[in-house]
Amino acid sequence: MDNTAQEKTQSQSQSQSLPYCTSRYYAQRIPTREVRIGNTAVGGENPIRIQSMTTTPTQDIQATVKQSLALAEAGCEIVRITAPNKKAAQALGPIAQALKDAQCHVPLVADIHFLPSTAMEAAKHVDKVRINPGNYADNKKFAVKEYTDSAYAQELERLHEAFTPIVLRCKELGRAMRIGTNHGSLSDRIMNRYGDTPLGMVESALEFIRIAQSHNYHDICLSLKASNPKVMIEAYRLAVAKMQSHDMDYPLHLGVTEAGDGEDARIKSAIGIGSLLNDGIGDTIRVSLTEDPIHEIPVAQALADKAMKLWARNTPTQESPSKPGPDTDAIDPFSYTRNPSHAIELNSLKNNDKPSPSSCAIGATHPPRIIIKSHHPLEDYTTLIQTICKHQIQAKENKLEGLLLDIQTPADLEHFAKLYEALQSVIPFFVLDLSSEIDLQHLETAKLPTTKNAIILTQKLDKTDAHYATQLLQYCRDHQHIFALNAHPQDIQSEIGLILSKMGTQNLILTTQTDQKSAHSDHPIHPTGQYRALLQTAKTQFPQVPIWIRNTHANSIAPEDYFSDRLLESSILTGNLLCDGIGDLISIEDEPNLEQAIPLAYNLLQGARARITKTEFVACPSCGRTLFDLQTVTQSIRAKTDHLKGVTIAIMGCIVNGPGEMADADFGYVGGAPDKINLYIGKTCVEYNVPADQALDRLIHLIKQEGKWVDPDKMQKY
User: Fold this and answer.
1) Are strands 676-681 and 684-691 parallel, antiparallel or unpaired?
2) 88, 164, 536, 684: most buried by Cβ count inside 10 Å?
3) Average pLDDT for residues 191-202, to the nearest whole number?
């Protein structure tokens, strides 16, 4: 290929200099054009639209109609139905008619792969056609081939000819189109020029958009999905930047594909979708769960509602708004690079100078550490001791690392001393969140334990507390504690930051919490933006100081008092920041149930690919192409393999997307035919047409064969 490497490098460099949102510190919706899908409009000033997809065989008209009606009743505003062949496409006609007869006017979308003839038929019956550029009239055989510029141009001409008929058909019939690229289904041509990258995903979509534009067709929505939230976030940011540089304004359909099921899937979806909505990006969303699709709707609605409330705070006025937050942002939003920080050893030595079995470290190359807030009254410390000891004994990977305690009175300090004595060898470190009623005199009187760096002291301060902050930092250094400065970034830029910076960064970490002034200003910094601003300030005054992400009520967008909402809020904040490379500690502080809070913290780190403590599952949400009971099989595989730390297993319903979508997986379990499973190692199929009742055992055999199996009862305990 002529100058390929140079072109790729230049393209990546140019993309990094492109803006993709109004501000990374506050949320303002990115303007897009309005595209009508039947009687529903997407983009423009319309609310975020909720989508889902049927899982019934499309040719089972009655079942598909029933599920579509149930989805619409649950709040789904756009329903997608797969059309894998012409017969399925023809079935879309009676499905659409049956819905109309039932007075249900939810728009229908035909999901098309590979066959242009199927797309041409489906367009007659639905309101929108989804085209996957990697599969539509293109090659995906994982072939390595060098394309000269002329050969690449010839391929584009061929695509132009193949794609033009469906563009003209949609234009003639008034149908919308989604050009939806997936990370795992990029064509060989794209893969060989751009690699398996977000840039490749964007360029693949833009090629098809340019063909549509050549015919003056603009009723287009765009999606760039991946099972890895970091890849997905980067791809959408890059797509927006590229579109803005080419005067394109197409609405964006957001989703994390193959997210799986349960808590893990909701976390990954909230990280990817919520992060982009925080940036003002997104017009319609689908949460892809390997569950009954009706379960997708409340999750999507919650994410959309939070975004709409956040955007409403930043509605543009006639005058140009002043942008809160720093003037610059040192983070590269188009690539994941962890923010550099220096290491701090926690609980590294006991009083007898022997290494502690519970020691750990934060910052540098160490994984982010977890902190869980106790909601037990401190005077009832015996119950808390029993609860924590029981958890630590039973847990394998998901150990409690830091315990956060509210210190409201001097008596709480006395209770803590007894708690510490019992748990000092069980928990690596403790965090004492001091109320405004606690001062240095109380700390001196309490005579806290002086085990090296086993205690982190934090107290919310503002710019008027500069002198006190220096005293507190010095106290921590004198007594071998860590001081966590909890302040607004603007306050750190004032006297408090200037004075503390002169003392150096030893025994110091930074954190922040959204205050009421910020939350209700004309253009408030959202919680994610506040941490971004904190990092920007830290780079100047406190270089390489570790940063602590606090998931609290104050650091939420629109909190509700139940676990599923706390999961979404913490995923949006922590996941977004971790994907930005920010975060050396994270804390879960609103969830009162210890047995829910600890797994949530670890699952957040896993979802953001910041710390892997268990098996990673890539599982498709099922559709009419699925060749086995995906939900049941996924649960069965998870039950047998969930303990395999660092192993990724893909569970795919069919071969249409299977080999490509599981591109990052170590092993693959893919439907090859009814009751037949194809097993993969990486992208290579090693066993064809394995009987379904033998497939799980054969998968485990492959894992053992590759040396990645660990017996659950032999896992090392902490």
Assistant:
1) antiparallel
2) 88
3) 92
